[in-house]
Amino acid sequence: MNKKFYKCPVCLKFNGTCREAISFVCKSCKALVNIKAKKHNYYIHGEQDLPDKYKKIMRLKNSQSRFDIIKNFYNDKESCFIDIGCGSGEMLEIAKKYFKNIIGYEHGKILFNSIKFKHTVYNRNFNIKDINNLNDKNVIVISICHVLEHNFNPINLIYKIISKIKSPVVLYIEVPLYTGHSFKKYQYNYKLWYEQHLALYSMKTLEFISKKLKLKIVNSGYRVFYSDNLNKKEIIKLIFTNSWGFIKSFFERKNKSNILDYIKKDYGYILLKN
Ligand SMILES: [Zn+2]
After folding, report:
1. How far is the centre of ligand 1, averaged over its atoms, from the C-alpha of 208 (Å)?
2. 10 Cα: distance to centroid of ligand 1 (angstroms)
3. Is beta strand 101-105 parallel, antiparallel or unpaired with respect to 32-34?
4. For the chain, what are the domain ranges?
5. In 3D, which of 69, 19, 46 has the Cα closest to residue 269?
6. How far is the centre of ligand 1, averaged over its atoms, from the C-alpha of 201 (Å)?
7. Positive or negative, the Cα torsion across 40, 43, 45, 51?
8. 260 C-alpha to ligand 1 centroid (Å)
9. What pTM was computed for the model?
10. CATH class for domain 39-229+265-273?
């Protein structure tokens, strides 16, 4: 029998065997690895389309709901906000309400060009020199949303950013989960199961990453994308077909979160401190 093993893109262990045709759950980090995914160079191809007006509004609302979580975990008016993979810039836009210093990083050329005159953004990776002007005591809040699942060795990606920062760091990470309602329903037809996503995560994968980085988990939970909230029929069906789950979700939900975040659980987030 062919002894080929697949390497997990998250923990880098050879945990998948050739018997799996589409995916495997990694024994170490509990990610669901997409065997058919391809590594992309987003400087060249694979970037998201520019959002239309409606999508833009939805993304702004989605960004606001992230800041409703993040804002409870730092207390410093001089702090700096950094968005890794800032896309069309909605997190940078909302960050203006809360931060004096705001920096974005985006590899995609079209997305970068669309926001470069509006924000401080770079078409490259983070460089410690970009925050040289800040005092070491100022808190650095970093968001990495829907980036890790596109990357091989996401732990190293985060490590390269935070290891050089001397200031206190608050890190908000958000990823799509395979444990949520949408993946359970659509399986490999789920729109987030595609060749750019090297793996879908579980909350255990996020915990694995925090442990490897020796960062403290200060908060974690579930989210859905704002526009995914709109299918009311589906919501009602979900509540009625899973009323025990609904009651449980209602009690486990965190103060400000949307009840749907806890019914669908399609995305997971984790807040870390160094
Ligand atoms: Zn793994």
Report:
1. 9
2. 5
3. unpaired
4. 39-229+265-273
5. 69
6. 10
7. positive
8. 29
9. 0.90
10. alpha beta
